[in-house]
Amino acid sequence: MRKVVLILVLLFTASASFGQHKFYYTLVIAPHQTQKANKLFIAYEIAGAKYIDSLTTDKKQLTFNKKLAQPVAAILYTDNKAISPAAVFLANNTLQVFVDAAAAVRVEKTPLQNDFLLLTENDRVRPKYFPLYGELTAKNDTAGLKKLAILFDSLKTDDVKKASDYFSKNKDSFISLLAFSRLTSSLTDPPTVEQYFKQLPDWAKDSPEGKSILSRIEGAKATQLGSKAIGFTQKLSTGGNTNLERFKGKYVLLDFWASWCGPCRTEHPNIARAYEELKEKGLEIVSVSLDTNEKAWLNAIEKDSMTWTNVSNLKGFEDEVAIKYGIQVLPANFLINPDGVIIAKDLKGEELVMLLESIMEE
Question: What pTM did the predictor assign?
Answer without folding.
Answer: 0.74
